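User: Could you check the structure of this?
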Amino acid sequence: MNYAKLAFSDAIKALQEKFGSRKNYERMEQFRSTDGLTANEMDFVAQRDSFYMSSLGENGFPYIQHRGGPKGFLKVLDNRRLAFLDFSGNMQYITLGNLQHSSKVSLFLMDYANKVRLKIYAKAQVLELGEQIDLEQALVLPGYKHRAERIMVFYIEAFDWNCSQHITQRYTADEIQVAFTSQSEYLTKLESEVKALKEALKSKR
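Assistant: Sure, the predicted structure tokens are below.
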């Protein structure tokens, strides 16, 4: 797998040459090849609670869809395959229709808190529920109340990590709660101590 070889067309290479970045990216084409996701990418995917997916329509326009769920809803099947249960949405079926035109998709997986972005080229396969029972059971999310309509499998063609420039840091409610746990515990401790001191002063009067 080599993201640069797949992403860089002749027109893109010409622009890189024009603006002075071609030499760096030429090395990327030559040396940054992998046999699939490493443990680092697989762990990153497992921690995500959303991703963005771009597909290409018959009209020639791309369409970007946000998919979300509990952390880990996008499952790593192996170092070349990802899959998730596609839950009911607004019933426009734009992505689903686009995939009948072309199976090629581009995924963006974001970690806003740490300003990290993983981008993936893949081919998508749509499976109906009941078509692969073992896979379907492996993707089930206990306690998640939304209704699954189908399974989507991504066959990874290439991936790359993006730089952190211009990614605004954002935090989920859970991340904020974790970050302030020690402060909350300290405040609770201080409140208990103040209460104890007040009671001690009252008893001396």
